[in-house]
Amino acid sequence: MSTLAVALEARSPAKLLVWVAPIVVVLLVYPWVATQYQAMLLAYGLVMAIAALGFNLLLGYTGLLSFGHAAFFGVGAYTVALMVKYLKVSSMELFLAGAIVASVLVAALFGVVCVRYTRIFFSILTLALSQVLWSLAFKFFWVTGGTDGLRVPTPALLGFATAKGDKMDFLSHTYYYYILVIFFACVALMWVIVNSPFGKALQSIRDSETRAEFVGVQVWHHRWVAFLVSGVFTGIAGALWVPLNGLITPDNLLWTFSGKIVFMTVLGGFRAFAGPIVGAVLYNYLEAAAVGNTVYWQFVLGTVLVVLVLSLPTGVVGTAGRLLERWRGRTA
Question: Terminus-to-terminus CA distance in the chain, angstroms?
Fold first, then answer.
């Protein structure tokens, strides 16, 4: 466990509040002090943070590296788009309910296949199943729109908040706060999960599957439930992301999108609870800066990310925690 655990997870709720409260205040006032573009950029980051949190339940707490989480993200996003196309639904709450149901079904099925295996076999299976969904979205173009994708209009929030006026203002303020509430709920729920007896059992499986079985932990069952929860979190992120983006295409089911979620988590630090959150937001800003400043943004972004990962092997949060502990040691 990295020093993040010392910095956050081992703290009492009161001391934890001292760390979290300033961040909450910044997130609340940000749309009023930043431009609409910057607020939307942060909204994208918060959505991806939900996906990375779900992904890290497998990688950081269960020891399973999935290369197929784009599947759940795409299932959530395509569920919203198909509900708009065929059911003429415009309620965001119904979108989220539909995305959760679809994610549960897909994650439950994929989990039965994947969690019997570990290491590279698990990773390859998740990658292969994700590619199956990508090929279905690509080939069944009369349903999914193929490479043109499906457009999703701005939804109605809580039955009354709509984007009848300025769409950008709606997305950067009203929809931003809607995402923020769900983000806080997901963070709180994941915190409860990883600190519950179930979460401790997952960590025991990660550390030693044999020892976990010896003390009575049902390894397969715990891995399957973790896979299910992870898929639902990522599906929720997909459902929140598509109204913000306005379009879903098969590219969001491709393995490269799964790799992006992996990279966000590693960048922030997968052994730290806050690591995926920081990594997702940071990656989003880095990508936007690279895209906005050079046509060779893939090369620039790739180089920057490789340097960051090599220089910060425990991730941004892990390194920050280690530096904080070193500073405390000098001042003690």
Answer: 23
Indicate the SS3 state at residue 157: strand
Is 237 in contact with 70 (CB distance < 8 Å)? no
Token duo for residue 145: 């729109």
Is the pLDDT at 186 greater than 90, yes or no?
Answer: yes
DSSP β-bridge partners for residue 157: 161
- The Cα 311–Cα 301 span in angstroms is 15
Q: Is the pTM of this model over 0.90?
A: no
Decide: 7 and 323 in contact? Cβ < 8 Å. no
Q: Any alpha helices (H) in 195-253, and if so which ranges? A: 197-207, 209-214, 219-245
d(Cα 266, Cα 312) in Å, to the nearest integer?
10
Give the Cα separation of 185 and 192 in Å (integer): 11
Tokens representing 30? 């940000």
Spatial separation of the C-alpha atoms in residues 190 and 240, rounded to whole Å: 18
Tokens representing 28 are: 């609340």
